[in-house]
Amino acid sequence: MKPAILVWLVAAFFAAFTHPAHSQIPFKIQDLYDPELAPFYHGVASGDPLPDGFIIWTRVTPPGKPRATTNRRVPVKWTVATDPTLSQIVASGNTLTSGARDFTVKIDVRGLTAGQTYYYGFEAFGQQSLTGKTKTAPNGPVDQLKFAVVSCSNYEWGYFSGYEQISRRTDIDAVIHVGDYIYEYPDNHSYSSEQIRDERVLFPHNETVTLKHYRTRYANYHLDPNLRRAHQQHPFIAIWDDHEFANNAWKGGAENHNPRKEGRWKTRKAAAIRAYLEWMPIRENGSSIVRSLSYGPLMDLVLLDTRVEGRNIQIEDVNSPLLYSPDRTMLGATQKEWLKDELRSSTAKWKILGNQVIFSEFNIAYAAALDPLVTGDFLESQFLDIWDGYPAERAELVNFIETEDVENVVILTGDIHCSFAFEVADPVLGNPAYDPATGAGAVAVEFVTPSLSAANFDEEMGEFFSGLLEDSINKPFPPTGVNNNPHMKFADLDRHGYLVLSVTEQQVQADYYYLEDILVPQTTEVWGAGMISASGSNHLVPASAPAPPKNVQDTPAP
């Protein structure tokens, strides 16, 4: 989702944000290869940890011209060990890859020990890959779990210095990516940063529409050294959002898809799914990403698809009579019942939902007072791609959590390029059952991670107006003095970064880390804020410091 509020403020206060065309840099994607990594230029990755295993992944680039190697079958050896030198081997095997799956390799390793760190690598053409580090999920009690939560990594807009910071962490159990891992836009799109445009050349140069396009874009991303290092050091647990397909995608199409020029949506969607499953370390289940992972009695992680599995087309007008229809769905009937079953049957202390778009109410109509040229209805209509556009289904899920007495539900979200923390109640305003001072009446909490690099509000509409919005969005707003978002306990609209979720028996804490400058490959980070929810409270309070590190630190991969 491209932050739609820019339609309002940019139009009202800026004549235009133009980016003059620039000539394409005359090199091929192969010029991004690090020769020392041949033939594993795209590094290694792992993901979807289980108590007895995980996925390991790589991509082999056969020598020779790409067209000449398309039909070639390449043997690959893989090894898993308990030490960084890969000498204490616990599993190994051989496999084949070919152009049919873009020379990617994905192995579902099983039979391992729960809650243990492992190291892995690959061999092809007599060469060794980088050594990766990963770990299995626990199946018994643990004191603490930690996850980096990321979203919205736009290659052209900035360096992936957030991934570089994540790669340095030695107590992360996994990286949860809640979507927009890639962006489909062409090179020289309006999201580009002039300062680094020629240093972050995008491949392919055109918008991604075909299987070849999507494969090339993933290859481009995996050649980024910061992302490659993050994958090398930590398992990823990933779900897609819209930009892995096209902006504001839904089951049957997308805002950024023109069937007359770009062909059938069904074909494009299938190509995007295929490339994602080839290039991401995800356990495959047909064309679905819906799944759950257990982290022992402390936590269950439930991963949703609010994009292309069941979602109805977005409504564009908040006054549409269809908006509150009980037939409108974000999840689809099958996924919704599966989600209810997962929540109802979970015996874990915490139920963490991996979700793409903001679940909580996002009340923005009040901000029309900042611009007399627009109305509150207009502003609300810009945010109907999130769960506000599917209010009946949201109310159904909130009611289910409440009536089934499902405790300690935490929702992780990305998409909007900003940081938020919500207490989840429905409705928020005019609801006597909800007390924002204590959290009474709330059924869950939601943490929204900022964009890793994609443009946030201040970069789209200017620091002044972003600041006005940030200062008013969850505070009493004159002249009425009403807080229109009392459930929104934290908001930051203008910084890039990620959050770290720390989970214990007593509480969850979301720590928001922000990058000093994404226009340089390596940068420093600062702790911006932390929000805590005690077990059983569904209430958020500010933290005075980051959550403490885990007692046991992993040895990084070399």
UniProtKB/TrEMBL annotation:
Protein name: Alkaline phosphatase D family protein
Name of a matching Pfam family: PhoD_N
Domain PhoD-like phosphatase metallophosphatase: 147-512
Signal peptide location: 1-23
Annotated keywords: Signal
Transmembrane annotation, as ranges: none
Domain Phospholipase D N-terminal per the UniProt entry, residue ranges: 42-136
InterPro entries: Metallo-depent_PP-like (IPR029052), PhoD-like_MPP (IPR018946), PhoD-like_sf (IPR038607), PhoD_N (IPR032093), Phospholipid_Metab_Enz (IPR052900)
